[in-house]
């Protein structure tokens, strides 16, 4: 018999499932991972979205306009206090838009996003309460130190 999973493990599993649903384009699964009612979401470059229907509408739009997406999560940190959990991570994203020709994959683009996901414990397990993703912009530290040409760029 396997030992009971800790809250931290269950939250990390819920966080991973959120990204897997996006990768698979499984809107139904993704919808079931969000709390009902007062939720919020900030996609990179977007304004704050509030409310269950507005947040889910944004994911439907992203899924409808993204031919391919894959997340490689790094720097995952999980903190649980009572019935609330905070997950921070880096989303190393590989995505592709619509192909120029039928039957082909569109151009692939890499992007780094730092994300904060807040979960609440429910009778049905851990549900997403809030997601905030911010793009990692070019690092200008090397340029200031005279070590590089244009600094580092965000990407895989």
TrEMBL record:
<feature type="domain" description="SnoaL-like">
    <location>
        <begin position="11"/>
        <end position="136"/>
    </location>
</feature>
<dbReference type="InterPro" id="IPR037401">
    <property type="entry name" value="SnoaL-like"/>
</dbReference>
<protein>
    <submittedName>
        <fullName>Nuclear transport factor 2 family protein</fullName>
    </submittedName>
</protein>
<feature type="region of interest" description="Disordered">
    <location>
        <begin position="134"/>
        <end position="156"/>
    </location>
</feature>
<dbReference type="Pfam" id="PF13474">
    <property type="entry name" value="SnoaL_3"/>
</dbReference>
<dbReference type="InterPro" id="IPR032710">
    <property type="entry name" value="NTF2-like_dom_sf"/>
</dbReference>
């Amino acid at each position: 018999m396997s030992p009971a999973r800790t809250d931290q493990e269950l939250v990390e599993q819920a966080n991973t499932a959120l990204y897997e649903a996006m990768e698979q384009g499984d809107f139904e699964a993704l919808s079931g991972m969000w709390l009902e009612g007062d939720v919020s979401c900030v996609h990179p470059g977007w304004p704050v979205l509030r409310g269950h229907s507005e947040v889910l509408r944004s994911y439907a739009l992203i899924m409808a306009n993204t031919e391919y997406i894959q997340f490689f999560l790094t720097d995952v940190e999980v903190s649980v206090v009572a019935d609330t959990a905070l997950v921070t991570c880096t989303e190393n994203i590989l995505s592709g838009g619509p192909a120029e020709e039928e039957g082909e994959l569109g151009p692939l683009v890499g992007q780094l996003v730092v994300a904060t996901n807040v979960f609440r414990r429910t009778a049905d397990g851990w549900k997403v309460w809030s997601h905030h993703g911010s793009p990692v912009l070019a690092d200008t530290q090397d340029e200031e130190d005279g070590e590089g040409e244009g600094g580092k760029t965000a990407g895989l």
